[in-house]
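WARN retry 2 of 3 for item q-0093 after timeout on previous attempt; input resubmitted unchanged.
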Amino acid sequence: MHWRRFPNEAERMSRIDSHQHFWRLDRGDYGWLTPQLVPIYRDFLPADLEPQLAVAGVTATIAVQAAPTVAETRYLLQLARDNPFIAGVVGWVDFEEATVADTIAGLAADASLVGLRPMIQDISDPEWMLRTELTPAFEAMIDHGLVFDALVRTEHLVALRELTSRFPDLVMVVDHGAKPPIAAGDLTAWKREIAALARETPVICKLSGLVTEAGTSNAPGIAECVEHLLENFGAQRMMWGSDWPVCELVCSYEAWRQSSNLLLGGLDASAREQIYSGVARATYGI
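OK item q-0093 returned
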């Protein structure tokens, strides 16, 4: 694929950031966020993000959970009430809790809740999502029209394919392109499983988080992964996200936006509009 820069009018197209986070350290529920992660070990709040959205031409975002607590989900829902640019929240519940259906119903009473995300990447069992005790959670998500954001890696994709066959009415989104092992250098298994997932399921894919997996913003592997995702999912099943502020471990919001422009420059305006706005609107009901 030949990469080129957008023409000026494409730079001005309306955008939705389908994947960003907020956190406040004094909440105390971000177990993964340690002082060793120097660039992001501080508060990141709507006031920090809003000026960057204006520069990037982003008009709405989806705020995604960063802590495995219902309390953080409620915190994000409050931020959405206070900040109109937050168009939706992907929250967290304990999928194994006996009363999970009631918890989901209570949270879903807030229209800003558009999805849920268990932190599957941190669960040792790659087939955890297939446990029968999770069925009430998935059924409640379907009942309330919520999207399942899958925070997965290559080793989870076989199970994810099975999950889609069990719950065909559940809208599913793969976060960060299933975190390809760009830094490790061997993309063979990831490419195989991504192709199978795209071919056999209606799952949607987020174009986000790749710079973090690469460890640098200019790794050749990023372009290779984007090309593979486009070839398999197509623009009609991909949505752009910043993964801010996690991206700050590698590059700024603006740097990822500019890199995305280059990576998607070979697409026509209609395809870019789908990735930058249309798919997120349809998927999350924005």
